[in-house]
Amino acid sequence: MNKRYANIKEVSEYTSLPVKTLYEWAGMGRIPSIKLGRRVLFDLNDIDFFMASLKRDTGHCKRKVKEILANVNP
Prior knowledge:
The chain contains four helices and three strands, in the order E-H-H-E-E-H-H. The chain has helices at residues 8-15, 19-28, 44-53, 59-72, and strands at 5-7, 34-36, 39-43.
């Protein structure tokens, strides 16, 4: 059985983000979370989606390198 929900310490290890940052982001609504009394839980599917949304687009770098190489080797 795969685990779907994780506590804040588990998500911190999973993402390499500090617990404090996760608490702040969850409180601001920046990252999806579930509040059960004093506990905060995270859906790992939401965490994967959130982390993917933070990725930088490097496609323009690859295009620029190809453009430079094309000019060097006409």
